[in-house]
Design a protein that fits this description.
about 95% helix; mainly alpha; rod-shaped
Length: about 50
């Protein structure tokens, strides 16, 4: 019974770690997208005011 509990905990920690890493990657990608949109908007405003 103890060995089963150990492996269940190992699997749980591994899945939580994987989820956390994937979430960080997703948030990082969203940040890059938002930055790109902001830069494009800024460029459009600069071109319109020239």
């Amino acid at each position: 019974m103890r060995k089963l509990s150990f492996w269940v905990m190992v699997a749980l920690v591994a899945s939580i770690s994987t989820s956390a890493l994937l979430a960080c990657n997703t948030v990082k990608g969203v940040g890059k997208d938002v930055t790109a949109v902001g830069e494009a908007g800024s460029d459009a405003v600069n071109k319109a005011t020239k």
